[in-house]
């Protein structure tokens, strides 16, 4: 096995929404550097229209040279976040708040259900995940939080 000497070698990343898209791309880059990746996302079963689950992402992370821990996490659920954080190692070096929701409709066309979803994930979920991970980040020699926002277009 090759020794990983990338900048993230030995680091542990907690990435929300890492089962596909940008979150998975970040996970794979970290894996190529030799990082440990907690894949915190809702998708444990295949979605009919979207590729990837936490388990397929974990397989790809391991194939890329990292270590993966897939965790079923809806970031609106404090218990699920807490359980995933407890499964992780004592130190988390980087939190990537990637999970997000967006409705690309005008104000008059956007239902309150969609607004509640966006606020629940983008605001509350990001805040809650940060709050629960920060005690672990404080044990890191180089703690970081990266907050991403939903795309402005599809």
UniProtKB/TrEMBL annotation:
Domain of life of the organism encoding this protein: Eukaryota
Entry-linked SUPFAM superfamilies: NAD(P)-binding Rossmann-fold domains
GO cellular component annotations of the record: mitochondrion
Q: Which Pfam families match?
A: adh_short (PF00106)
**Alphabetical list of Gene3D superfamilies matching this protein:** NAD(P)-binding Rossmann-like Domain
Instruction: Kindly provide the name given to this protein in its UniProt entry.
Output: Hydroxysteroid dehydrogenase-like protein 2 isoform X2
Q: Which organism is it from?
A: Lates japonicus (Japanese lates)
What's the source species' lineage?
A: Eukaryota, Metazoa, Chordata, Craniata, Vertebrata
């Amino acid at each position: 096995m090759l020794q990983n000497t990338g900048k993230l070698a030995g680091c542990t990343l907690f990435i929300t929404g890492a089962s596909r898209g940008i979150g998975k791309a970040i996970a794979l880059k970290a894996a190529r550097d030799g990082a440990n990746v907690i894949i915190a996302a809702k998708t444990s079963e295949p979605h009919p229209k979207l590729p990837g689950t936490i388990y397929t992402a974990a397989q790809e992370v391991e194939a890329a040279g990292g270590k993966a821990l897939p965790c079923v996490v809806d970031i609106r659920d404090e218990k699920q976040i807490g359980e995933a954080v407890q499964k992780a190692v004592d130190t988390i070096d980087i939190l990537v708040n990637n999970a997000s929701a967006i409705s690309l409709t005008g104000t008059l066309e956007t239902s309150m259900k969609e607004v509640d979803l966006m606020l629940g994930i983008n605001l509350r979920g990001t805040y809650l995940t940060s709050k629960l991970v920060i005690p672990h980040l404080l044990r890191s020699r180089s703690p970081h939080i990266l907050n991403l926002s939903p795309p402005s277009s599809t």
